[in-house]
Amino acid sequence: MNKDTIRIVFMGTPDFAVDSLKSLVDAQYKIVGVITAPDKPAGRGRKLNESAVKKYAQSEGLPILQPTNLKAESFLEELRDLNANLQIIVAFRMLPEVVWSMPKLGTFNLHASLLPNYRGAAPIHWAIINGETKTGVTTFFIDEKIDTGAMILQDEIKIEDDETVGSLHDKLMCIGSNLVLKTVELIENDNVNTTIQPKTENLKTAYKLNKNNCKIDWTLSIDAIYNKIRGLNPFPAAWTHLKNGEETLSVKIFKVEKEIDKHNLNIGILVTNKNELKVAVKEGFINIKEIQLPGKRKMDVKSLLNGYHFEENAKLL
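^ that's the sequence the OP posted. Answer follows.
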């Protein structure tokens, strides 16, 4: 088999997927179709927002499909007409078997973790939240369950002590696009050796993020709090309640530092001066560097302290 005989359908939606699609285009693989999410209304004007993958595909003149129902016969007919023999999935949704079983060479997925750990919707976030020191990317052939198929390739990366989900996302996006390309090359050369995912007890899962699991629990250890905040920075952002005098506000916390120190303050109490906003926790303080009040933009703490007054017993709940 050679490059000219491979016909690829690429499925993806966010920025994370664009690098992989671009690597395939730059390597001159034949992309016969790009499947991405339908346009969605966004912002105050409810203007239709196109996915990052759609915008890139349009710039390259690639055929685009945006199905709302992956089982609809009209979509399946369009997909068959593309006559692809390989499908590649990066940050898309779960596929029905009628879709992933369609191409002769199979359908493989790029997942942003070292499988079998961190299967699920938010692997980059949870690796940092759980205090991991390494993570990576995995390509695998899709089967009927979520992120359980036979693994093709993996690439590992260190998680830095001050890593945020934003910085790690960009690193994994880059090494992921390289892994997608290597995987296609293996398939092209009929040189794929897969590994069945081991059945391991106590697997770590990348649960979908929601308002409840993004809330900060100030009673946890200083490391757990620090990891949670950086594992949600900048998106979707960790949040907490600010009790300041008679008002209680929901605020988002972004950049922080940890400060190991002994104190006798109650958990959650805020300590402020002209330049600092610190939260008392078990082993010391979480020093807040960036914060966002309701209806305001994210700002550095010095800017906040110039215009916002904290009462004597202000605390985070």
